Amino acid sequence: METGPDTGQLSGPIVPPTPDAARQVFGDSLAIAEKYVAELADTGVSHGLIGPREAPRLWERHVLNCAVIAELIPQGATCIDVGSGAGLPGLALAIARPDLQVTLVEPLSRRASWLEGVVERLGVVGVKIRNARAESLAGELHADVVTARAVADLPTLAQWCFPLIDGDGRLLALKGSQAQAELDAAADRLRALGASAWRVVACGEGLLEQPTQVVEVRVDAAAIPLAASTSPRGGRGGPKRQPRPGRKGPRRGASRRS
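and the corresponding structure tokens:
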């Protein structure tokens, strides 16, 4: 709470007005999205998950920036959001796409507790929260899609996230204007860790002033070392995930740009 400049009275959090793009992205879930933005502007700021100066641009820079990547996720998919923090992008996706089953993975207890409270207050279904490090969940938790925003560089994300990806799933890493350059620099490492294809995709074109740059990395789960994340440099030691019944194991010559 802040003191008003003229009256000396306490003023509430700054909640930005709902833009037209939000109505298109969230549809029937818009009211829930608006409550989420209000939570971010209030307890998200007071808990240190969102900077005070970010409040006026919560929609464009944060919530919509994350929610538009839903266009890359198949209907009814399972998702894991690594380093969820304030629920970005995982909770924004769960609100925009009620068909998804989303697990928010957050290593800091205070942030995980905040997420639990917000999910309960918003009444969002299909969302679970794990207070854990992503690398500790290899072999236990897996999903069709793993997302991450402002968590780590691409090789590190690959070490943490690839073992969580089910079948021929994908990693969606939200990056900034240097997404292509970062991807080019990381391509060889991604291939060594089990990537089969990669590209940069602009999401939200025509809706957002600055479309979201997403590095999409497809993987062959049978080629990913289950214990890749336990090695500081992503070594390939340790057991490998077994192919599903009917699969013939790793595809040869599959590493390529899409």
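(Above: one complete record from the training split.) The chain has one domain: 17-241.
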